[in-house]
């Protein structure tokens, strides 16, 4: 795989990134270490995590994923220099007071979170430090509409950038990024960085897959013109685009017993658990099979080959899943198949937005 430059930064990464949010919840530490080693063996140089992981978020597992990765790095001392390591500082709210209490996300909050991540990851520097979700109120994680009445921001973007700049100047962070952002947020972070000579965001990590192409509704132009790279998360639609829910749904007798939406009831009410998301996924999965592909192959090839995507973040629970996802690299979708995919989108839009 040819490495991709992230934004205007000096970071160069593989176009596939290993997501790790299952480590410490669905995936035990020994298995997580095996997956990390296999990813490195297969040529991946990009790993993404977050201070609030594992998912689903619980106070008991907050920080567990970073600790697991840190323990693996300690056992494999030559691995760190081969990797681009990304993590995230959590925003406020979202019902997780054990991560961030109160309103806002102050400079002290950001600094403390960074120190905690560095300690758990057992590293001296974070290559890409991302704001996990905006400090201000935005429609994210399945919410559809911006409501100014819900605005409760108390930490200006300029202050957040200044805090991140201090981490960069101290050598604790190389580059910065955003996640779950909007066109306004990306523009404002870039504008203020350029106006005040502060670090410029290199990336935005947002959902992008066949059942959620909302990125193409404005963010693709924003980030293209501003030279900010998309890190596409959930390219398999939280598992719906693998076909494993096609027979029994997310709760039926044929649903996989160890799948996230099956195991964790709280996730069924989220965007990926919507009945219309499953209905659309089944349409795409049937289209894949009709064209001689597995649902996983088509869904990943869609992300792997889109000009909008710099790197696709794949989440796996075993080495076999990792190999399956990596083996989909190089799959090409015909113009006719892409037209059929667009036809389904015109009919069903973005049900997991």
UniProtKB/TrEMBL annotation:
Pfam families: Aldo_ket_red
Keyword Oxidoreductase: yes
Keywords assigned by UniProt, alphabetized: Oxidoreductase
Ranges of residues in domain NADP-dependent oxidoreductase: 15-345
Highest taxon of the lineage: Bacteria
Gene3D superfamilies per record: NADP-dependent oxidoreductase domain
Protein name per UniProt: Aldo/keto reductase
Species assigned in the record: Verminephrobacter aporrectodeae subsp. tuberculatae
């Amino acid at each position: 795989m040819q490495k991709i430059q992230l934004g205007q930064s000096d970071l160069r990464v593989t176009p596939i990134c290993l997501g790790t949010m299952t480590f410490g919840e669905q995936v035990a530490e020994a298995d997580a270490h095996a997956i990390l080693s296999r990813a490195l063996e297969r040529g991946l140089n990009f790993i993404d995590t977050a201070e609030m992981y594992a998912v689903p978020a619980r106070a008991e597992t907050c920080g567990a994923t970073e600790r697991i990765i840190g323990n693996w790095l300690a056992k494999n001392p030559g691995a760190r220099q081969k990797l681009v390591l990304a993590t995230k500082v959590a925003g406020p709210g979202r019902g997780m007071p054990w991560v961030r209490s109160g309103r806002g996300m102050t400079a002290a909050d950001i600094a403390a979170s960074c120190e905690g991540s560095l300690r758990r990851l057992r590293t001296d520097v974070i290559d890409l430090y991302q704001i996990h979700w905006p400090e201000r109120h935005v429609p994210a994680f399945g919410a559809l509409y911006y409501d100014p009445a819900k605005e409760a921001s108390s930490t200006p973007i300029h202050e957040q950038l200044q805090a991140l700049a201090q981490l960069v100047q101290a050598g604790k962070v190389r580059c910065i990024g955003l996640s779950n952002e909007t066109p306004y947020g990306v523009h404002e972070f870039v504008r203020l960085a350029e106006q005040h000579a502060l670090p410029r965001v290199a990336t935005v990590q947002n959902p992008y897959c066949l059942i959620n192409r909302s990125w193409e509704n404005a963010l693709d132009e924003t980030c293209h013109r501003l030279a900010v790279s998309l890190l596409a998360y959930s390219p398999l639609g939280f598992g719906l685009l693998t076909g494993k829910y096609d027979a029994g749904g997310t709760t039926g007798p044929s649903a996989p017993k160890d799948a996230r939406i099956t195991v964790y009831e709280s996730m069924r009410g989220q965007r990926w658990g919507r009945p219309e998301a499953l209905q659309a996924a089944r349409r795409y999965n049937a289209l894949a099979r009709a064209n001689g592909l597995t649902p996983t192959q088509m869904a990943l090839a869609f992300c792997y080959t889109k000009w909008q995507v710099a790197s696709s973040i794949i989440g796996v629970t075993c080495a076999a899943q990792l190999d399956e996802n990596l083996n989909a690299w190089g799959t090409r979708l015909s113009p006719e198949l892409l037209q059929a995919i667009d036809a389904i989108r015109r009919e069903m839009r973005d049900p997991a937005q």
